[in-house]
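Renewal narrative, Specific Aim 1. Our central claim is that a sequence can be written position by position from structural information alone. The example that follows is taken directly from our test logs and has not been curated for this report. It begins with the structure tokens describing the chain, in the order in which they were read.
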């Protein structure tokens, strides 16, 4: 199966990114039947406030993270979106197939309009069409993402259908692939998804030190937390969220059994957070120990990271160029 996904270089990765998306990327590249493409969506990241001084470091750091988590240049094509001009060229063509109200309906756009009132730029609005181009230019069949990206993927399928109806069958309609934890919630407000924009204490970064992880888990909202009219909802969601993180990171048989017991206690209203939380912190710390080691090693070799991205661009670019050529022919631009 042809598989593609991307991630924005904008700050550190958190366990929501890993458990919702990257965990699946690593799994999917392990199947020889899959043809996997994963990229750094740097053009998408320009739609938010950013510092030009930081950007190139963010791109390299994210690539290091992906490699440290297990993506490999032998198994997947790993590349930087902005180095392949064909994505944005296809975006222009696809733009003419999309209606303004369709983009106005996008939940992520509406959320970001509220969050960055001072910078409601056209890129933010057109974000889903660039995403559709990223996917369709490789004729991908499946896209592993977290739940928040499903609406964008539905639009991608609609664009593919529209193109096929108008110009003849060409693009597959890509499906989404979700993990068992497609939406990890914020530690400080479990009614919202865990996100970089939720503030430092709301997420666990993969690069957090063991000490910080312990502190963050300890102060996470659980069954005793939450006040006001959402208190009941928040309380339940907080406990469920922490349990689902435990479950997703439990690898051994013993850890699975441990999870079942915690779950039973939680259901009966008897879960002792004073015991459960330190165990959860320990599980997170151990799970990402190997990642932290690999990351430290890879950080010492920026030339290797640049080479991985360059090789990826070479491979992806050839495919993207071919698709764009075919598209131009189909829509009548080739004289
Ligand atoms: P953020 O919301 O922190 O800025 P991104 O938009 O860069 O994260 O998301 C990168 C990938 O991680 C996407 O596939 C997205 O669906 C997934 N993802 C982000 N947050 C979560 C979450 N809380 N739970 C599960 N998956 C998530
Ligand atoms: N919009 C995605 C996110 O915020 C990133 C992304 C860009 C993407 N292009 C893509 C994901 C293509 C999958 C396929 O996480």
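The sequence written for that structure reads:
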């Amino acid at each position: 199966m042809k598989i593609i996904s991307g991630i924005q270089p904008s700050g550190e990765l958190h366990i929501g990114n890993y458990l919702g998306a990257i965990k699946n990327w690593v799994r999917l590249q392990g199947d020889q039947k899959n043809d996997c493409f994963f990229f750094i969506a740097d053009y998408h990241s320009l739609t938010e406030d950013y510092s030009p001084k930081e950007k190139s470091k963010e791109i390299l750091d994210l690539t290091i993270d992906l490699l440290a988590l297990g993506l490999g240049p032998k198994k997947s094509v790993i590349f930087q979106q902005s180095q392949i001009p064909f994505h944005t060229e296809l975006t222009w063509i696809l733009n003419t197939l999309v209606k303004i109200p369709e983009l106005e309906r996008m939940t992520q756009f509406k959320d970001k309009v509220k969050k960055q009132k001072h910078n409601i730029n056209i890129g933010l609005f057109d974000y889903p069409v660039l995403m559709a181009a990223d996917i369709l230019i490789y004729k991908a069949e499946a896209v592993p993402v977290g739940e928040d990206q499903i609406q964008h993927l539905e639009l991608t399928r609609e664009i593919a259908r529209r193109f096929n109806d108008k110009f003849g069958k060409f693009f597959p309609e890509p499906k989404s692939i979700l993990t068992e934890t497609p939406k990890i919630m914020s530690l400080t407000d479990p009614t919202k998804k865990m996100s970089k924009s939720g503030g430092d204490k709301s997420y666990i970064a993969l690069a957090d030190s063991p000490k910080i992880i312990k502190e963050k888990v300890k102060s996470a909202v659980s069954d005793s937390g939450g006040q006001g009219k959402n208190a009941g909802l928040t309380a339940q969601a907080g406990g469920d969220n922490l349990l689902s993180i435990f479950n997703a990171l439990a690898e051994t048989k013993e850890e699975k059994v441990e999870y079942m017991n915690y779950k039973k206690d939680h259901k009966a209203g008897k879960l002792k957070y004073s015991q459960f939380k330190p165990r959860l912190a320990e599980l997170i710390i151990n799970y990402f120990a190997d990642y932290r080691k690999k990351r430290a090693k890879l950080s010492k070799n920026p030339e290797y990271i640049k080479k991985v991205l360059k090789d990826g661009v070479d491979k992806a670019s050839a495919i993207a160029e071919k698709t764009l050529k075919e598209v131009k022919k189909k829509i009548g631009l080739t004289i």
